[in-house]
Amino acid sequence: MDISQEISALRLALERANYEYYVLDAPTMSDYDFDHKLRRLEELEAEHPELITLDSPTQRVGGKAAEGFDEVIHQVPLESLQDIFSFEELAEFGQRVNEIVEGVSYDVEPKVDGLSVALEYENGIFVRGATRGDGRVGEDVTQNLKTIRSIPLRLPENLPRFVVRGEVFMPKTVFHKLNEERELNGQPLFANPRNAAAGSLRQLDPKIAAARQLDILVFNIQYVEGRTFSTHTETLDYLESQHFRVIPHISCADVDACAKQIETIGDARENFEFDIDGAVIKVNSLTDREVLGSTAKFPRWAAAYKYPPEQKPSKVVDIVVQVGRTGVLTPKAVVEPVRLAGTTVTNATLHNQDFITEKDVRIGDTVLVQKAGEIIPEIVSVLKEKRPQGTKPYFLPEQCPVCGAAVIRDEDGAALRCTGAECPAQLMRNLVHFASRDAMDIEGLGPANVENLVNAGLLNTPGDLYSLRVEDVAKLERLGKKSAQNLIRAIEKSKENDLSKLLNAFGIRQVGQKAAQVLSRQFGSLEALASAGEEELTAVPDIGAITAQSLTAWFTAPQSQHLIETLKAAGVNMKSRAEPIGDKLAGLTFVLTGELANFSRKEAGEQIQALGGKVSGSVSKKTSYVVAGEAAGSKLRKAQELNVPILDEVSFINMLEQEN
């Protein structure tokens, strides 16, 4: 077998395996064999780049981030659908259809709540994918779509040109896992799976999109050369034969049968792996569709039934407070069981104290409950005429219900947050942050290993890291003796970190990496910082009143003091290792642009801050200097326009090294 034949055989085997795994859900190739074949294909293509093709499995995840998305003009517009909100409106839709064509049958499908895209194939090869956009012009997201394993890169039949439409979605299980990870990493949560799918598909780096595990259901042929079809059902059968994941669908003889199928989909919506926001009714005959045509906005042959948010009364039995991984207190109403949107609801979110106060929700109240976006049960209103005597307004506790630490309100929102440094509810989040690169920088201690250690009962506070033993860690899944030794070595190494890293690791509100560096240099030791009063703290450059209050509150808390004592006993360094090299750049603001030969931008910024200067991300009349390296761009031009002094790298180094 020559090289080109081997490459072709590997591609066919890998694509078949992808189809079996991601579309049929019936894999026959082991992960080991798949990885082995993929690696062999990568090696052969690296040796023979002239043999790389667009449909190769190696092209699913691009290595380089795109500069942006090009516009794509859709050859056939991706139309939106007219919404209908009741079975009366469904009957009216059927009547309008029958006035133009008679004896019409329909197809009913769940309406996936995702992001609509068009997939283009030429001679059976996937060549381009684009978002719907406004229906006529979308964005080219081909590289990100290639990361979706259920999209075939080569079709069994090589039609000259073939365009299909589908809905990209994030499976519910993936969505919940992603939000858990984002919460651990202190990132804002996605509101719903559609929001997450849209954000993932529009990532400039395909590797990020690939990590999000998106999927797709295809539901329409937009354009085809070389084949003809008579019904929508035929097109879906054909799409299935071409290895697409096709939308679940049922044929219905009339609109009455459609109504029954809509009810069936509604009752089963909790069981779908994807979120739905309705059901789609389509005329089955493609000839009838041509006769019916479209209005300026919608096709006359289809409509989207939107399920009304079902509301039912229930009684608030209790209000309980949960503490999230970031310390936020979230109140939840425990209600008498009520059936909503196909499931039994026993809890409803109350969001925060402002929500409770605004709606005046009390224990004992009768309330209207609905599912927000068909997902999260929430209280719509209180039926105050049914309120029993003796109820009292509800207020969230002033102490954390998990650890007893004081609770504070976020300065920029309605959230109440636990301040406990060793709060069990926040343990995962605190540990992940404690070990992160800008904090204690413990290599190998990411979210997965943190979860592993916590679940094994080996960690109850960040201080417990320094009492871990190799033999205990080595017993855990996915680790082993060598990995355990490396992890313990990294933990030991972290004891020697500068005080600034430890300060950042504590996760004190308002104290990030920059503030930690400033405080470390100013006070020299954790003991000196802990004993400083608010007045002394606010005298430090860049430390305001809110940060000072946060620091004093944290250091006086019993859990914080216990954590400090644990770390001190373990031998963790609590002193600044930075030389007190003065403040000769105090009052000066620098902007960095371009590539520097002797520093990364981060390192250059740290040098400036260490000498009392400030670093800004944008040029203005208040900028003191712009430091311009190779390939400096718009910031350099802005500095020239504003006559801001410009330093090359040599001049910048001279400024840093000159005597005060």
A few lines on this structure:
The protein is of the alpha+beta class. Helices cover 36% and strands 20% of the residues.
What this model shows, in words?
- It contains 24 helices and 22 strands.
- The protein is of the alpha+beta class.
- The chain folds into five domains: 57 residues, Orthogonal Bundle (Helix Hairpins), CATH 1.10.287.610; 224 residues, DNA ligase/mRNA capping enzyme (D-amino Acid Aminotransferase, Chain A, domain 1, 2-Layer Sandwich); 76 residues, OB fold (Dihydrolipoamide Acetyltransferase, E2P) (Beta Barrel), CATH 2.40.50.140; 161 residues, Orthogonal Bundle (DNA polymerase, domain 1), CATH 1.10.150.20; 69 residues, 3-Layer(aba) Sandwich (Rossmann fold), CATH 3.40.50.
- Helix 12 crosses helix 13.
- It is globular and about 90 Å long.
